[in-house]
Design a protein that fits this description.
The chain has about 350 residues and is mainly α. About 85% of the residues lie in helices and about 0% in strands.
């Protein structure tokens, strides 16, 4: 169909732009995906397709969040949620509220856990299977931030059960990776490695680079937990490279943090400091303020171990600038111990 004919059919034109955005996002080309969704949003609004434009806005907010453009993502997600409610499009509300939850988690907001539980209930009754999996995955993330490992394990298992009931390998891989992460922090490192390796294989079969990165991070963290540090570093460096290649800076920052944590465990403080600096820089680029603050605190621990006490104090003194109340409180304790 000629492009000029498609342009005269707003619904078709917008749908084509959205499909192109999905492909671009999958390929790691987030700027192109953002541009296509912005154009699709304009097309739908000009055609007065307000209900569908709300869905496009929600998708745009989701991609902007992934690209680290947090303020704009938050504004658009709120707008999409409101428009979805007015139009009676609950699936749009769920997508938009999930993005708002992801932003809250990146900033370690105190109400993240309550938001996650409420959104899980909404998606259970009104969401698609893929939305249910995504929301439960975020809920597990909130529970891990709160160090509620027992409940995180229960929700992760529930998430995996739903993912296994549907055909998309991508969702199966991501739920396996999340469950592996919970197993790792719960002290079941060997089981975590096996589950994460399964997740990586499934993600590779689905050509899901993001899912594979997540699995590689869990494999690295779990291997470090059982003392297999060289293998852990290999997995985490691989995850970092792949995450940057597919535009997933948040995952790259997580991989760098885990790499630093593993080096710190075995007393390789200079290597750990380098990894934590990478994690902080990348986290700041994608708006992951909580991870940036945690990385700065960890780097201060490295400086202290290396005898650079002034550097440690200086690092801890700026933690509160990241707006994470938990990390700020812990940095005060850290400073008192220097």
């Amino acid at each position: 169909v000629p492009s000029d004919v498609i342009a005269q059919q707003p619904a078709v034109h917008a749908a084509r732009l959205e499909a192109f955005a999905v492909l671009s996002r999958h390929a790691g080309n987030l700027p192109t995906a953002i541009g296509a969704l912005q154009q699709a949003e304009r097309v739908r609004i000009e055609a007065r397709q307000f209900a569908d434009s709300a869905r496009t806005t929600a998708l745009l907010a989701e991609v902007l969040c992934g690209a680290g453009q947090i303020e704009e993502a938050a504004q658009l997600a709120e707008r999409a949620a409101q428009a979805g409610r007015r139009a009676g499009r609950i699936e749009v509300v769920i997508t938009a509220e999930l993005t708002r939850l992801q932003i809250s988690l990146r900033q370690n907001k105190a109400d993240s856990l309550d938001k996650a539980a409420q959104l899980a209930e909404l998606s259970e009754h009104h969401g698609s299977l893929s939305q249910q999996v995504a929301v439960l995955d975020a809920w597990v993330g909130a529970l891990l931030q709160a160090a509620d490992h027992e409940r995180a394990l229960a929700i992760a298992e529930r998430c995996r059960e739903i993912a296994q009931s549907q055909p998309l390998l991508r969702l199966r891989a991501r739920s396996d990776a999340r469950l592996a992460q919970v197993l790792a922090v719960s002290g079941q490192a060997n089981e975590a490695v096996l589950m994460a390796q399964q997740a990586a294989a499934t993600a590779s079969s689905a050509e899901d680079d993001v899912g594979r990165c997540r699995a590689l991070i869990v494999i690295g963290a779990a291997l470090a937990g059982v003392g297999r540090h060289d293998e852990a570093a290999l997995s985490l460096n691989h995850a970092m490279s792949e995450a940057m290649a597919c535009g997933q800076k948040g995952l790259a920052a997580e991989a760098a943090w885990e790499l630093g944590n593993g080096r710190l465990r075995i007393g390789r403080h200079r290597e750990a400091s380098h990894a934590f600096s990478q994690a902080q820089n990348i986290a700041q680029q994608c708006g992951a303020q909580s991870l940036a603050a945690r990385s700065l605190r960890a780097n201060a621990a490295c400086s202290k171990a290396l005898g650079r006490l002034d550097d440690a104090v200086q690092a801890l003194s700026v933690v509160q600038a990241f707006g994470d109340d938990v990390e700020t409180a812990m940095s005060v304790v850290d400073r008192a111990r220097i």
